[in-house]
Amino acid sequence: MLDGSPRLNLASFVTTWMEPECDKLIMDSINKNYVDMDEYPVTTELQNRCVNMIARLFNAPLGDTETAMGVGTVGSSEAIMLAGLAFKRNWQNKRKAEGKTYDKPNIVTGANVQVCWEKFARYFEVELKEIKLSEGYYVMDPDKAVEMVDENTICVAAILGSTLTGEFEDVKRLNDLLVKKNDATGWNTPIHVDAASGGFIAPFIYPELEWDFRLPLVKSINVSGHKYGLVYAGIGWVVWRTQQNLPDELIFHINYLGADQPTFTLNFSKGISIFQFLVRIDPNYCSVLLAHTSWLRGTGYTNVMENCRENMLVLKEGIEKTERFNIVSKDVGVPLVAFSLKGQSFHSEFEISEMLRRFGWIVPAYTMPADAQHITVLRVVIREDFSRTLAERLVADILKVLHELDTLPSKISRKMGAEDFANVKRKKVKREKLMEVIVGWRKFVKDRKKMNGVC
Ligand SMILES: Cc1ncc(COP(=O)(O)O)c(C=O)c1O
Fold first, then answer.
1. 3 state DSSP class of 355
2. Sorting pLDDT into bands at 50, 70 and 90, what band is 453?
3. Which side of the chain, N or C, has fewer Cβ within a 10 Å radius?
4. What domains sit in the chain, N to C, each tagged with a CATH number?
5. Is-annotated flag, keyword Ribosomal protein (predicted)?
6. Ligand 1 pocket, 77 CB below 6 A?
7. Residues 6+ apart with CB under 8 A from 392
């Protein structure tokens, strides 16, 4: 499972590929477990092939006959837990060998990281050292990150495609600065790239961008299949630069699947979505395979990603034309549009989000993390099936919502009381006023909702 087969000829696996047949295979296999004994040798083989392809897509330094190191996971969150554990153990082993303390590991990230990094830090007892954001700069600043690195830093995590704005962090600059710091200190601090979304975008439409194993300090990378890998939910991967980057002691060897089976995952069983790479017209297997098929549709990925980018630009221009929003996302990055209301508005992005639901749009509104909490954005992620027509319709619906809001008093002002709100308007500086509006809105939402569980 962990060290996949050498360079492959996937064509030999693909006898026929027809979308409806694949869907049927997926439905037929819905009751199957990835680790089912009958399926085991084939599913493992297929997964190894995926690992090899992905590692090579990310420019791992592998010879033609060398096998890549990696593992299939349920998604990027599991992949990140595994990558983080490997960094922690490597760091501890190094410290032990040097006769130094190893009880205070930390990890350096931007405050914009996805919650799975906070989970990793809390669950696996690693201090999370976050670089704060600022208004207009919503990704990790590599200079500040390198400054924050100390002898207890197990790795710096950079994101290729921030969840909040889609922006790619500058991994090249981070690498170059860290190389210098490592030379000066002898610490050897490595980099992990969280390419949950960007891992299947950058190689196809920004091939010149250096963010992956071309940079010497990048030791592991995760990617989700169910984001821009274009497959159903329940599949992700983590790949390591070389075998040495994954400590052997973390790998378990089991034989109850009929042969020696190395395993390094948090969950043993998996759903059939991992068989999504399925193309082989053998009706018994389903998940790893569908990912294979997508790869195999030649330039399919490049076309899909270019199309997403074009539709993102159509949407962005439409939103700009309303003259009511600032665009917060960048043209280069995950194809999404993140935007904020311009200037001082008596309505909030939350109200726009809520009103768009009436037209069938679910456009989340959220506040930025520290120190940019006073900024609220709306975000539209452009996926394969989001057409130009939909982009135009969304702009038209946003205009309708704005028009309606212009004729209404703000919900927050009603909730807070017109007088209070007028005071807020008069007395507070812009930033404080916005915070008050956000707090008012949060209270408004909380009053209406009962939490039944956690997600
Ligand atoms: C940057 C980033 N990392 C990690 C994750 C977690 O990915 P998954 O849902 O595949 O566990 C996400 C999900 O949104 C993400 O955007």
1. helix
2. low
3. C
4. 10-296 (3.40.640.10), 307-408 (3.90.1150.160)
5. no
6. yes
7. 314, 318
Cβ 114 under 6 angstroms from ligand 1: yes
- What is the pLDDT, as a whole number, of residue 24? 66
Is residue 176 exposed (0-12), middle (13-18) or buried (19+ Cβ within 10 Å)? middle
CA distance 150 to 101: 13
- Which of the listed residues 73, 197, 211, 224 should we mutate to test ligand 1's pocket, taking the one with most ligand atoms within 8 A of CB? 224
Residue 443 has pLDDT above 90, yes or no: no
Structure confidence at residue 226 (pLDDT): 85
**Mean pLDDT for all residues in the chain:** 83
Shortest-distance atom of ligand 1 to CA 77: 11
209 vs 230: CA distance, rounded Å: 22
Place of tokens 């600022």: 134
Percent of the chain, pLDDT > 90?
A: 62
Spatial contact of 190 and 217, defined as CB atoms under 8 Å apart = yes
Whether ligand 1 lies within 6 angstroms of the CB of 224 is answered as yes
Tell me which amino acid residue 353 is.
S
Q: What is the DSSP letter of 128?
A: E
**3 state SS of 428:** coil
HSE-CB for 122 with a 13 A CA cutoff: 5
Q: How far is CA 102 from CA 121, 123, 177, 261, 333, in A?
A: 16, 17, 25, 31, 37
Q: What CA–CA distance (Å, rounded) separates 52 from 48? A: 6
Q: Please indicate whether residue 194, judged by its CB atom, sits closer than 6 Å to ligand 1.
A: yes
Assess whether the C-beta atom of 75 lies below 6 angstroms from ligand 1: yes
Mean pLDDT, range 178-183, rounded to an integer: 98
Q: Is the CB of 76 under 6 A from ligand 1?
A: yes
- Quick check: bond before 371 cis, omega within 30? yes
Long-range pairs, 312-317, Cβ under 8 A, ≥24: 312/336, 312/337, 312/382, 314/388, 314/391, 314/392, 315/380, 315/382, 315/391, 315/394, 315/395
State the average pLDDT over residues 418-440.
55
* Three-state secondary-structure class, residue 243: helix
Distance 196 CA to ligand 1 centre (A): 5
